[in-house]
Amino acid sequence: MTTPSESLPIPLCNSAELVDGGLAVPFDVVYAGQTCRAFAIRYRGVPHAYLNRCTHVAMEMDYQPDRFFDDTGNWLLCATHGAAYLPDTGQCAGGPCRGGLVKITLSESDGVVRWHTAYHLQAVAF
Questions:
Q1: Is a pLDDT exceeding 70 seen at residue 110?
Q2: What's the pTM value of the predicted model, to 2 decimals?
C-alpha cells in the first residue's frame, strides 16, 4: 500500500486513444479532498493531463464533451470565458485566466498511458 506522498501510476487509456489535437480522455481524481474531473490530451506527440477546472472561475472547460482544443489544435480553451492555455504546460496564454491549469503527471509505455497520484492528487475510491 502506498502513502499519500508516494506516486502511484494508474492506467488511464491505450496510447492510440489520444490523438494529437483530438478528443480528450476524461477521468476522475480526488484533488485536495474534492472529487474532480480531469482530462488527458496529446499535443505534438506527447500526452498531457490537467484538472478540468478553469483558473478564471472553477468550472469545467470543455465546450462539447471531451473537446478542449481550438480549431487549430494549438490552444486549450475554456468554453465559458475564452481563457486560452498552452497544451504542453497548461500555462495561461490569453483571456481571463490566472496562472495555469493543475497539471497531472502522465507516463506512457507499452502502448498504455498512466496518470500518477501525488500528495494532493489521489484516485477516486469506489
A1: yes
A2: 0.92
